[in-house]
Amino acid sequence: AQKITQTQPGMFVQEKEAVTLDCTYDTSDQSYGLFWYKQPSSGEMIFLIYQGSYDEQNATEGRYSLNFQKARKSANLVISASQLGDSAMYFCAMREGPGRRALTFGSGTRLQVQP
Amino acid sequence: KAGVTQTPRYLIKTRGQQVTLSCSPISGHRSVSWYQQTPGQGLQFLFEYFSETQRNKGNFPGRFSGRQFSNSRSEMNVSTLELGDSALYLCASSLVEEGTGELFFGEGSRLTVL
Hints:
The structure holds two protein chains of two kinds. Chain A is mainly β. Helices cover about 0% and strands about 50% of the residues of chain A.
């Protein structure tokens, strides 16, 4: 089974609108972390936001927020007030268990912001 | 401070050759991990090094190897290159002590195997 599932290969959003990128995960670990990364065409992976499995509140970082629903095993990224520079690939990733550094990535969602 | 630096950025090799990629982590970061990104398989974990020791390894054949030096710089090597090894190879560093363990990625080395 896929550990990280991103069901939206591509998304379009109008500039200044909000958009939600979906991510579901599968793990039997109690301790895990969820990440979202942005990858522009240059190739660099840019960290956006992190949510720990024990964090009770949803993570927020500026225009990014993570809608964490633990029981449903979902960790959706919400981008508010989209900007043209937000056009990129977005990857959801998970780190399982304490002491492990490896991330498992989803297949990504390509977001295109339209003027 | 300087980010993660990967060299070379682009390279072209032929089947059967070998290649060495280099990664310099952010100053003070002691953990370095490598990922392979291809259109077909997406992003896959290769291996992770901490204090010159390999701590984790992904599901890749033995042709893929790596090492870390005392200054935390890391190299990965791919021997007997195959067409399927064409990919973007990303290096990431982290401060293990940080709670979130955020990984900082470099811009990658894009390898083309002909």
